[in-house]
Amino acid sequence: MHIKTKTEPSQKVYGSKIYLLTLLNDNYTSWEFCMDMLIELFHKSEEEAYSLAQELQDHGEAICGVYTFEIAETKAAYLEKEAKNKRFSLRCLLEQV
Question: Residue 61: is its pLDDT beyond 50?
Fold first, then answer.
């Protein structure tokens, strides 16, 4: 017996707004915490994380990625929650592209 299944075409997200997620330096958050978040949350390699952490320290901000609003908002909320739990005041900025 042959069973036919109807599959939906892949749904592409046309018209979704895209956001830059930027970390803002607070001069209190530890280097280790920044590195951990860049590697674990933003899936950066150790080299990329080091470069971004250095940019954050030198210029006061570093762009971590480009995401749809929902993903950017979720990542920013998670990072800020983790920072607060560690008693850091690291913040994120979401900017529509």
Answer: yes
52 vs 8, 57, 75, CA distance in Å? 40, 9, 16
Tokens of 18: 């895209």
pTM: 0.80
Residue 5 is assigned to a structural domain of this protein? no
3-state secondary structure of 15: coil
Give pLDDT, residue 15: 63
Number of domains in the chain: 1
Q: pLDDT of 74-94, one tens digit each?
A: 999 999 999 999 999 999 999
Which domain does 44 fall in, by range? 18-96
Alpha carbon distances (Å) from 19 to 64, 67, 72, 73, 92: 11, 5, 7, 9, 12
CATH number at residue 85: 3.30.1390.10
